[in-house]
Amino acid sequence: MTVAARRGRPGHSLDSLLDVAVEVFNERGYEATSMDSLAERLGVTKSAIYHHVPSKVELLRLALDRALDGLFAVLAEPAATSGPAIDRLEHVVRGSVRVLTGELPFVTLLLRVRGNTEVEQHALGRRREFDRVVTDLVRLAEDEGSVRPDVDPAVTSRLLFGTVNSLTEWYRPGGPLTPDALADALVTTLFTGLRTTPPDFFGKKSR
Known about the structure:
Elements (H helix, E strand, L loop, with lengths): L13 H15 L6 H8 L3 H5 L5 H20 L2 H4 L3 H18 L1 H8 L6 H26 L9 H14 L12 H16 L13
Protein name: TetR/AcrR family transcriptional regulator
Pfam families: TetR_C_24, TetR_N
Keywords: DNA-binding, Transcription, Transcription regulation
């Protein structure tokens, strides 16, 4: 059952608490992080944290949902729900890069989940659901003749998002590479080998 977030005290919002909690979870691991260590990092008492959320697991749930909700929001965008499947797939990849770069610590935490708690198992279930949607898009693009048919759609999906997810290992916001430039580079690299008809040198698909 979802627990509603509690109203925060002046000077500390739930968002700022969540930002710090995710930072510490990524540094130490969720299981190794205590409420005492979170309070120490925040410079507050544990009771101040409990004024926002009832437990550490609720912080984890909120953090994982933030990353997953962003990804599922991409799937609901008009460009991801209508038009040629290959274009929809490209939009989903671009949107996923946008979510990753905008919510980098939260996506990093999501990718480290191993299903050790009920909250983590639920998050993994939502990740599998996202993967199924992407795989179905790849399969539909293959049926439409725009994706090469010699690679299993599930494998193609894993390769696409394995590359997207690997960005958490080296991408850092504020650097010379903007999120849009990063998405352009990734899509150009991956989709050139994926499409049955590659783009020409001006970025338009050949006819």
